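Crash report, auto-generated. Payload:
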Amino acid sequence: MQARVIQVHPDDNVAVVVNPEGLAAGARPAEAPELLEAIPMGHKVALAPIATGEPVRRYGEVIGLATEEIPAGAWVREDRARMPEPPRLEDLPRATAVPPAPEPLEGVTFEGFLNPDGRVATRNLLGITTTVQCVAPTVEHAVERIRKELLPRFPNVDDAVAITHDYGCGVAIDAPGAAIPIRSIRELSRHPSLGGEPLAVSLGCEKMQPDRVFPEARLRNAAAELPVVVESSENYVLRLQDEHLRGFQDAVNAILAFAEKRLAELDRRRRTTRPASDLVVGLQCGGSDAFSGLTANPAVGRAADLLVRAGATVMFSEVTEVRDAVHLLTPRCATPEVADKLIDEMRWYDRYLASGEADRSANTSPGNKRGGLLNIVEKALGSVAKSGTTAIQAVASHGERVTAKGLVFAATPASDFVCGTQQLAAGMNMHVFTTGRGTPYGLAYVPVVKVATNTPLAERWPDLIDVDAGPVASGAQTLDQAGRALFEKILDAASGRYETWTDKWRLYNDLVPFNPGPVT
Amino acid sequence: MQARVIQVHPDDNVAVVVNPEGLAAGARPAEAPELLEAIPMGHKVALAPIATGEPVRRYGEVIGLATEEIPAGAWVREDRARMPEPPRLEDLPRATAVPPAPEPLEGVTFEGFLNPDGRVATRNLLGITTTVQCVAPTVEHAVERIRKELLPRFPNVDDAVAITHDYGCGVAIDAPGAAIPIRSIRELSRHPSLGGEPLAVSLGCEKMQPDRVFPEARLRNAAAELPVVVESSENYVLRLQDEHLRGFQDAVNAILAFAEKRLAELDRRRRTTRPASDLVVGLQCGGSDAFSGLTANPAVGRAADLLVRAGATVMFSEVTEVRDAVHLLTPRCATPEVADKLIDEMRWYDRYLASGEADRSANTSPGNKRGGLLNIVEKALGSVAKSGTTAIQAVASHGERVTAKGLVFAATPASDFVCGTQQLAAGMNMHVFTTGRGTPYGLAYVPVVKVATNTPLAERWPDLIDVDAGPVASGAQTLDQAGRALFEKILDAASGRYETWTDKWRLYNDLVPFNPGPVT
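Recovered output after restart:
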């Protein structure tokens, strides 16, 4: 491969090294000055001299301010530039450049499971959720037995899974922060993949009582002898401490009886042809590198545009990876009110981080930096490329169910496993995950299509990466081609025609609902 | 059973109803006035009239202030009393009533596994720890294979376990709060049950780089081409993103090869007779009720005194369940400096809760209240009964390894699964757990002896409760008898002579390291 660099925007004074082995001092790429020093793949070369204090520009935006004289051909790296201030939330343009509605893409369909509530699943799962971590091993024990003893009789059900988490007790349940994990677990419990209705195991004495999670459940008029009795629905929730359960084996048998009824219902479900508007595609990046914003993320953006044109809901997330690009997003919001909600989510997170004596610079991991990312500004500008070019139709707060069609911002932390959990809570039924460094992360609820930002990763991990966006960097594929191929892969995976690698290996990360409140 | 109530302290103006079915209006217990209304088991009857604003006393301490006139024989319940202020941290007596060293109990031993570092384990486990949640399903997949393919060849190893958690990335790793989960995971990785040395799987790009967790590991001079490369030990840590690993199957095979070497080492371990001074017993209560402070907790206190006399380390924990009883503990601290550390831990937690707009009243769960506990003050006074009567020799902060012998306060949250995790990090090799409401909680690392506070629970859950402390309430057993029996049970479980119920069912809760810092 010839020496190759990519300049993203005509105003940029840096370009990114493409060659997998990096470039040596003296290399002469066609689009850059002769290199003064060796630069690894994904890292940046100065296209022109940058004086101390002057901006480093990528994506046409300021990603850093030089802390020393950087000559043309030098490596623009972390120790030579400091991070600029984040965009001020007070002065942002709101809905000033709303993209027009794109041309509809008619007749796009996939094969999914229609639920009674009208939402559609990409899997048919028996999922037993939990109101508290205390009961997790009991539910896992029961699920093992369900898999062996019951599941073979219900061949249309894909799997039985224990939906466990770390929340539910030992927390300040009335603190403001508790609202987020409670509503998240509520939505996770009635996710389309589980049939849209909760089937939960509670301990009984936990802080997060079943009726906090399932207020809509039919109330049973429980014994009223105590003023603090909480009523609960027997339809949905099995409480291990209830009088009629006599210890562990009895509880497990009760869970099995409970599960058998639900399995009979789930077993009647069949995939049918559904319009693309029933898709809720969650986009995420993790283990990002400088290629993320060149290849995989913009290819995902092209696929996102196609999905939006086909009528689907597409959600992007990760507040700290949006914060430094928010000035590019508020103009794209469909209305000033949507822009205000987006700004509110940024402000909330700024304060949340400050309360822990941190700020958005706590994002960017050592791997991000090794992959060539200067700081969170460069990472964010690459991250939001996933959102494509259409108008932002709605903003959902952490754990809120998304109901709008089109492009939506669903607030989540950027932590991979927390983001995935929160996107599921928001109603995601299909997941696309881009990665430059590589991760075996996966989810039991929905297929995860994993996109490599660079070919060396795709080649090194052939049994984990579903799509290689690397050819975009070498010029072998256009972004439009890559986006179209990914769009097709998403439809195939959602329909069960393509089995993702994480599904093949059953690599399912535990859910981690976002809990900004204190532990007691 | 005759109508029976228990008055804990001669100054008390309430007593606790003992009868499992509660007492009806008109009941006449020997030690209390005629009941004016029905009172459930575990709840309190007024022994004398309590005027509005006057104190409700139990354990000789003020547990509430009456918010209405409470006549003698009435039910003293949550809506009739408000919580008093917590003890002021500024005015506490420090080491003013240090109990004398108790008479030594000579010759007490158990059978344990001695590690090279001198610490002793109660189990012989292959534990593969993780630096980040992203790799958890990969490690779980590998551990399943290890159990099937390798473990049968190493009969002296009890089990192979994946030590997974929710920490490691998507967190503000440089924020002050991050120190706690990092040191906790370090200690969990070199726990005596795992042989005292870490064996860990890392992704590579995560925030919590291996060398943050294992700074003592032998450093390998890794490729120096990037300024931000973090060096790591190949002895201990396998990084999935390292160049030589080619995807998922290759990574799993590498973990198996890694595990096989460690299994060969672990398989040479044998139990030998060890002095009781090698025991580190962690005490916890969860799903407490008003009997906790009458039966199980004081029985544990008697056992704790015997263990201290035998030379063992005994740790009690749960900051929010100590906070309101701290004025009873600071006089017992061995030195003013120990008392200061105890006060510092209370102050730190007060601030932590305030930062999330909560306070210690966030403790007490609905189950606690149904069990008769008025508030956190009554719960705390019952909780600290576990600490027995000896001097507090040392105070460890969250996740710090305990090295002192005798009674130690190891700071942890009160959340059952977080407390258990943090006590393991502090070096616990044996766990005692009291419960009034019942919980199937267990730990893979060490035996958990579960003590019921009341006989109805012990009878209802015969396959989960190891010890019934209920006979103390009926008068069929003295606290000394119950404490002595528990002491023997602890030695039997630690030695592998008694299999606890959670071990029988393999009910092992995931570890939840305490993370007071923000998620990014």
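Post-recovery validation: Chain A is about 25% helix and 15% strand.
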